[in-house]
Amino acid sequence: MITPLSFAGIIGVVALSLASGLPTWVALAGWLSYHTRGTSLRDGFYNLACLVTGLGIGIVAESLMFKWQADLRFWALPVALVLATCGIWLMNFVTGIRNWPSYLIGVAIVFIAAMEASISSYLTLTAVVAMGAAVGALLDLTRRSISVRFRDESGTEYR
């Protein structure tokens, strides 16, 4: 269910990304990834860290795909995606943060954006998803402060 506050947040993300000339759908993906694993600020920062790590894994996989394209031809993309999936699995195993959705959203953003595999592309995508996640955090904090205001003496929340 989309509340008026969520709708205002979506409009805000779209307006910010359009004003800065950045891809709107990437900012919305950052906003979406903020909510993949819980809705506290701590969970949101974990989600953003996993998303940014997924962007890095995606950039590496995309650069490998371009390197192998001459040798593997049409098999370059599936091999790169399998290696990216192995990298995601290892990140889940090594770090202990099992957040498949955020990692996969990061890899998907890189491949769908079809930008060149460079550090500037990585930094641009990181800035855009961070902007979307920041708006998601702002909306979450606003929602929590509004819900705190409407509690009676017994602790019952009114929304």
Global shape? globular
What separation lies between the terminal Cα atoms? Answer: 14 Å
Average pLDDT for all residues: 83
Which oligomerization state do the chains in this entry correspond to?
single chain
Order of helices and strands: HHHHHH
Q: Can you tell me the residue ranges where pLDDT is under 50 for at least 5 consecutive residues? A: none
Please compute the radius of gyration using only Cα atoms: 18 Å
Largest β sheet strand count, sense and barrel closure:
none
What is the strand tally?
Answer: 0
Strand-residue proportion: under 5%
Helices and strands: which structural class? mainly alpha
Number of domains: 1
State the share of residues found in helices, binned by percent. over 70%
How many DSSP H or I helices?
A: 6
Can you characterise this structure?
- By secondary structure, the chain is mostly helical.
- The protein has one domain (25-141).
- The chain has six helices and no strands.
- The chain has helices spanning 4-20, 24-34, 41-72, 76-95, 100-113, 119-149.
- The model has no long low-confidence stretch (mean pLDDT 83).
Topology of helices and strands:
Elements (H helix, E strand, L loop, with lengths): L3 H17 L3 H11 L6 H32 L3 H20 L4 H14 L5 H31 L10
In short:
The protein is mainly alpha-helical.
